[in-house]
From TrEMBL:
Its EC number is 2.7.1.89. Residues 29-213 form the Aminoglycoside phosphotransferase domain. It comes from the Bacteria. This is Thiamine kinase.
Length: 280
């Protein structure tokens, strides 16, 4: 663990935490595994371990709102194990530490799908943002520097930036990064973390993205979901999933391109190229 002075020197945005919790923390550790959040785990006298999620320039690049993240966490509080909002301000948000063991593998996919279906029943409170697919992909595209690389991906982006007509008009609170990497096993069950991309949107899209991360086939995934949301029309959802698969993959492709640009990491570029070839 770094002492507080060294931690702030390494990441100056940490300075905003002290005023929010009204004390000088004892030390901090950068959290591994985060891609866009680059969060810190901070030890405080009053709250023990907490998480600092800064309102940095990365939030603008990836269209992330810490205020929205706080609103989402306040909405899901009491419905499932997750972080709690301790304090919030213009510079970022302070969250409680969610203890437990990160989930790296799970044999029973039904548990994950059941948890996702439960999230989709939660009624948002406060000002939770509404997801706009075209606005999201256009934002990612606008953040990419003009280059030969960008021109290579232009045709795929332009062909998939407009959303076709969908069968399901339902809207729900969606997590939008609901994979095993954002689940923690603790004494109360599976806790869900990292809600920074959450928004009110089509639950079909949220399910599509989760099935892709779980590598679970569509028919099986929808039937597992229907066990907890029996009123959905399986045929309509299957049709919409097929549409969302291509649109969400293109969105992910742009995300990886942007991540490669921000972090100067060819690993992200390789992921974008893989998706590009799949879409072609």
């Amino acid at each position: 663990m770094l002492n507080w002075i060294d931690a702030v020197q390494q990441s100056p945005d940490l300075a905003g935490l002290s005023s929010l919790v009204n004390e000088v923390p004892l030390g901090a550790l950068p959290l591994s595994g985060g891609l866009t959040n680059r969060a810190w785990r901070v030890l405080t006298s009053s709250y023990g371990w907490v998480i600092w999620r800064a309102n940095s320039s990365l939030c603008q690049s990836f269209d992330i709102s810490r205020d929205n993240e706080a609103e989402v966490l306040n909405s899901v509080a009491g419905h499932l194990p997750t972080n709690k909002v301790i304090a919030r301000g213009p510079l970022g948000i302070v969250l409680s530490w969610c203890s437990g063991v990160p989930v790296s593998h799970i044999d029973d996919h039904s548990k994950v799908i059941a948890l996702l279906a439960n999230i989709h029943t939660i009624q948002p409170i406060g000002q939770v943002r509404r997801f706009d697919y075209q606005a999201k992909v256009d934002h990612y595209w606008s953040q990419l520097d003009d280059s030969v690389l960008k021109r290579r991906f232009r045709l795929i982006y332009e062909s998939l930036r407009t959303l076709p007509k969908l069968s399901c008009a339902q809207q729900a609170l969606c997590h939008f990064d609901f994979g095993l990497h954002n689940l923690v096993q603790n004494e109360t069950g599976l806790a869900v973390i990292d809600w920074e991309y959450a928004a009110i949107a089509s639950p079909v899209l949220d399910l599509t993205m989760t099935l892709d991360m779980l590598q679970l086939d569509v028919v099986t995934g929808i039937e597992l979901y229907k066990q907890h949301q029996p009123k959905i029309d399986s045929k309509s959802w299957q049709q919409d999933v097929k549409i969302w698969q291509r649109q969400s993959q293109m969105m992910a492709m742009l995300w990886y391109l942007l991540a490669a640009q921000v972090w100067q990491d060819d690993g992200f570029l390789a992921e974008a190229e893989t998706i590009y070839l799949r879409l072609c």
